[in-house]
Amino acid sequence: MLGKVLRGTDIENSEAAATLEALATPALLLDRDRLDRNLDRLSSRMAARGVVLRPHMKTGKSIDVARRVYQSVPGPITVSTLAEAEYFAQHGFRDITYAVGLAPHTADRAMRLLQAGVDLKVLLDSPEQGVMLGAAGRAAGVRPSAFIEIDCDGHRGGLTATDPKLITVAAALAEAGVELAGILTHAGESYGLSAPEALVAAAENEKTVAVAAAAALRAAGHECPVVSVGSTPTAHFAEDLAGVTEMRAGVYMFFDLVMHGVGVCTTDDIAISVLATVIGTKPEKGWILVDAGWMALSRDRGTAAQRVDQGYGLVCDLSGEVYRDLIVVQASQEHGILAMRSGSTQALPHLPIGAKVRILPNHACATAAQHELYNVVSSDSAAIEARWPRMRGW
Amino acid sequence: MLGKVLRGTDIENSEAAATLEALATPALLLDRDRLDRNLDRLSSRMAARGVVLRPHMKTGKSIDVARRVYQSVPGPITVSTLAEAEYFAQHGFRDITYAVGLAPHTADRAMRLLQAGVDLKVLLDSPEQGVMLGAAGRAAGVRPSAFIEIDCDGHRGGLTATDPKLITVAAALAEAGVELAGILTHAGESYGLSAPEALVAAAENEKTVAVAAAAALRAAGHECPVVSVGSTPTAHFAEDLAGVTEMRAGVYMFFDLVMHGVGVCTTDDIAISVLATVIGTKPEKGWILVDAGWMALSRDRGTAAQRVDQGYGLVCDLSGEVYRDLIVVQASQEHGILAMRSGSTQALPHLPIGAKVRILPNHACATAAQHELYNVVSSDSAAIEARWPRMRGW
Are B46 and B247 in contact (CB under 8 A)? Predict the structure, then answer.
């Protein structure tokens, strides 16, 4: 089973290998050196704090990316769909948290993974879901395990740490024969921050709420083994994680312009980019047209609300060097318009038809999802070293 | 070859057939009755004006959708990628316009389709592209054919009708051994309009500029057989198309909330929707959480700039009836938050965990692109009548 995890789909030295110059565009590039650097950074940080890192595979959606995270033995992971859970289970992963609220059809489907020997934990925040999960477990002849979702910042779902319903849900799980895995929270509001002190405070709040929720459950007689927190910003800004047992994060593997705007990374840390070709110029408007529109870049405009709006992406040369202030100002389905950022004093670079550029994405999860595969490169070479397929769907 | 076009991938009466209630979510639905009605509407409109309709396949990206457009013989189509051109050619289509500006790698690849007997026309607006295309044609032993792109409203690429470069490009094509197919323009700015008189004026302008460009070429001694215009709004608002030979449009097949905001369709005309399941509720915030986030809906916020902002989509019940004022107010990767539109006097409908809804998309092209296939339904039944795969990539 592990052999499957370790068998890469690298195409080094194969006929399909190519160079950046020869690659048809638009195409998604993944810089393996930057990926490895980003992985090391967070895993070292968590190891130093004695907290388990449970990477979120929703960003990469690729067994080959997962193999960079776990180079020998498959470890704990988080997923956003049951299709991801099934995909990673097929590749040998056994410790999986499905971090999206349970529905009747996902409860039944999740039980099939338990029957196959996967330690899949699900997420819920209501007694009804507990009853539903218990029934699904009994029908499948397995004992389900669930996290109760905690709301630490009003971002999305979950119960507050002081909500009496927390104890009601735990009791419903016990009654329904469902194991309480622990509590899980996500500081989603941290994506809207940028001041370091605010990020430290968001991480502190995420931890405090999580630990308080676990304490409330334990005080009511429920075991709460796992205290799971996480978001890429808080994972990098948390100073003290006492009481937390695991950290979840996903976009940290690739980083992106939104994370740059939050202050978690530099543009030089961003591991993915979209390779595009110039297909037209409009000198009178200061425009360069490329063949990467929103189909290749995604419609994500996550930097629009940040201090520096990066349009649909920041443009680099073929080596990955940023053209200062050159951004994708407009995108239609298969066209991107490059222009200097408003107010820039830089000159528009000369990029004739056929020239190639790399575009750093606003949001790595959204941009990568527009592509079938990663063209893997290293930081100091123009060779495509591997092609790593992505999975998709639900 | 035609047999291939007419052979559907319907799954009627097959084991895979299911009902809306039983379908795993999120899932893309396509209402075949609405699709057929939308197709009839524009084809009748163009037939009445004696203008060829060349549907744009970038929205549907499906041979099964194309088979509803052309129920007997494959006709003229427009595509946005060479992967689409190759896909539709494999399914018997022979008259294809690739309406994105030419690059060196696409020129070579396009020639392979010409070698295979496909009448593929490409798009350009510079002498350099003409020279590049001529060389690709000579290398492949075929005679390429190209449209000159005309800019009718400053939206994107192309030359204005009065730009002397228009004649320079035509001369470069002749010199390079490239056939001048005609001129092609796209009133992309019409997507930003909503007043009927402004839409009529945009259509009139698109036609006037196209006809003037063709006249300028003819006056300089160049044949300009095709005068191609198009956008879904102008296609539906054009009153007089004298001098125009063909109309291109794509999103008219499905329609969407952006087109509703422009005033081209009603919400009842929208043929695609995303089926989603309730996975949580936050009564204290007036929120209902569903399992369709931006991965299922896309990040498109095209209605944000319109008079009525529909968030990430307008919510309907399982039969397709709109819940007045219930929209997707926030989306993360696999979560959507439903809430009443700001200022609404309507009450939040009761939707418990497990309940299903249909979400009308802002932008059909972007939402459909997030999915592998269409679950085909009819307007008056809850049965999934067919599953139509979509193609993707470049």
Answer: yes
Closest CA to A391 of A77, A27, A82, A23: A82
Residue A13's region, left for phi above 0, alpha for psi from -120 to 50, else beta, is left
Both ends of chain B: CA-CA distance in Å?
24
Contact between A340 and A325 (Cβ < 8 Å): yes
Residue type, B155: H
Smallest Cα distance from B308 to chain A, Å = 20
Residues 6+ apart with CB under 8 A from B268: B34
- Contacts across the A-B interface (CB distance below 8 Å): 144
DSSP state of B159: B
- Taking CA atoms, B394 is separated from A291, A330, B55, in Å, by 10, 20, 19
- Reduced to 3 states (helix: H, G, I; strand: E, B; else coil), residue A57 is coil
Q: Which residues, at least 6 apart from B17, have a Cβ–Cβ distance to it below 8 Å?
A: B11, B383, B384, B385
Name every chain B residue with its beta carbon within 8 A of the beta carbon of A301: 299, 301
Task: Note whether A97 and A78 are within 8 A (CB).
Answer: yes
The domains found in chain A, sorted by start residue, are 32-255 (3.20.20.10), 271-360 (2.40.37.20)
Nearest to B333 among A58, A334, A371 (CB): A58
CB contact under 8 A, A332 and B188: yes
Q: Tokens in use for A59?
A: 């960003």
For an interface test with A, the pick among B25, B105, B109, B387 (most A C-beta atoms closer than 10 Å) comes out as B105
Residues on chain B touching A295 (C-beta within 8 angstroms): 80, 369
What confidence tens digit (pLDDT) does each residue in B110-157 have? Answer: 999 999 999 999 999 999 999 999 999 999 999 999 999 999 999 999
Which residue is it, tokens 């499957």?
A: A4
Task: Pick the residue from chain B with its C-alpha nearest to A21.
Answer: B105
Residue matched to tokens 């043929």 = B271
Residue of B25, B275, B333 to mutate for A, most A C-beta atoms under 10 A: B333
Q: Can you say whether residue B320 is alpha, beta or left, with left for phi > 0 and alpha for psi between -120 and 50 degrees?
A: left
Mind listing the pLDDT tens digit for each residue in A195-232? Answer: 999 999 999 999 999 999 999 999 999 999 999 999 99
